[in-house]
Amino acid sequence: QSPGTDGKTQNDLGSGVIINDNGDILTSLHVVANASAIQVTFADGTQANGQIAIQQPANDIAVLQTDKEPKVVVAAVLGNPGAMQVGDEAYAVGNPFGLYSSMSAGIISGFNRSFQPSDSNLKLTGLIQIDAAVNPGNSGGPLLNRNGEVIGIVEGIINPSGQNVFAGIGFAVPITTAGGALGSPPD
Question: I need a labelling partner for 56 at 20 to 30 A (CA). Which of 65, 97, 124, 177 fits?
């Protein structure tokens, strides 16, 4: 929840991924940065209160910890984005427009891209460009390779019309960069 422009409480939606056996959740910082409360719903339906434990503003990455975990914590398997090539399959998992646990498929369109969100002065660099559909609610969710390994954290989209809907170009922070928020990016 965050304060809206009219002063009323606004509920924003994003995604995340459990990154280790401690239940730490990796997400995009812009999803949770201004929240007065963070409600986390795990895949099994368990709900918990979350808080930002670590921030990596230069890469728009946050690590969340919760006051409760599901009975079984299953950490994502991390992949190597450096082993990927333009044209390789990519899958974005998240909650676009509140449609819980959705997946979209596409390909990797490029590497080492730069992106400046419209509401930020921060320019993100070193991103993976994808054409898998991502929309509001996908931010912070995992970008997977064809083996189901996390290769990135979904960041945002470019839409020349200025609307906040997918127009064919999305970006993800490579997991090797995002994982650095925990102090040890994968090899």
Answer: 97
Which residues are annotated as catalytic?
A: 30, 60, 139
Longest dimension (CA), the chain: 46
- Confidence (pTM): 0.87
Sequence-separated (6 or more) residues with CB below 8 Å from residue 5: none
Beta bridge partners of 24: none
Q: Supply φ then ψ for residue 142, to 5 degrees.
A: -80, 145
Rounded to an integer, what distance in angstroms lies between the CA atom of residue 104 and that of residue 94? 9
Task: State pLDDT tens for residues 74-87.
Answer: 999 999 999 999 99
